[in-house]
Design brief:
The chain is an alpha/beta fold. The protein has 6 helices and 5 strands. The two termini are 29 Å apart.
Length: 171
């Protein structure tokens, strides 16, 4: 099964903000037999946090600083592609920038979603990303195409799922 790592800023968000797009993308990719790895998997205990911090949480191993870095690095290394969601960010995400560096070092293709007036609008992002697109729908279509999974569902069903992402995605 092909694998996509879903990357994007988490620090400074509430749990629901951090997981909403991840859950929607995972649902869509599953219909194409693409396994989507989320950096927020097995972290539902963080739902009670007011704002997610960049320092990790020592209460569970995968939420600790070492757990976050070890698993995220391994997820990037073992994925076929990275989908980097940088939509509507207001500050640079250090973790996301490290992940894009890992992906490039491991020669994992990167598809980045980036809007205008974004602090991540930088030569390194454009240079390291195979594709930089303004919408999640375009990014998902590119990932599906790159992973050669477009024949898994019918055209009508595919459009329905991408429309779901478009009209129900709130950054």
């Amino acid at each position: 099964m092909k694998t996509v790592y879903l990357a994007g800023p988490i620090s400074g968000l509430i749990y629901a903000e951090a997981t909403e797009w991840l859950d929607k993308a995972k649902t869509i990719f599953a219909e194409y037999d693409i396994h989507a790895k989320s950096p927020m998997r097995d972290k539902s205990h963080l739902a009670k946090e007011t704002i997610l911090t960049p320092h990790g949480y020592e209460v569970k191993p995968m939420s600790s600083q070492k757990g976050i870095i070890t698993r995220d690095r391994n997820d990037v290394r073992t994925s076929d592609i990275v989908l980097m969601n940088l939509l509507n960010t207001t500050s640079v995400s250090i973790g996301s920038m490290v992940e894009i560096g890992w992906a490039d070092a491991y020669r994992i293709p990167i598809v980045t979603v980036l809007n205008t007036s974004n602090p991540h609008d930088h030569a390194f992002i454009h240079g390291l990303s195979g594709f930089v697109v303004p919408t999640m729908e375009e990014a998902i279509e590119i990932v599906i195409s790159l992973l050669d999974a477009s024949n898994v569902v019918t055209e009508g069903r595919r459009k329905d799922r991408l429309d779901y992402m478009k009209y129900n995605y709130t950054p």
